[in-house]
Amino acid sequence: MKPFHIPVVAIGPGSQPESEPVNYFEMPHDMHTYRPPVLPEPEEMAGRAEVKAVLEGILAGLVAGAGGVDLAGLAPEAVTLLGQVLGEGE
Asked: What is the pTM of this model?
């Protein structure tokens, strides 16, 4: 019978030749997802006919394909409420 040689490989730290470090792509840290606007409570909408009129004007403009709504005559609280109802967007 002929002798059969089995190569022995050392295992463990420092036993293998050093290779180049692996460079991974950095993963994104923040992910933006859609968050619907936080709508006011119904009692907060009471007495806000001017805001309702502006929202109806926006809807009518969207349906008609027109653009632009005049907010110049609204009180600052009404503009804030509109911003809350409409949320962020383009």
From this structure: 0.43
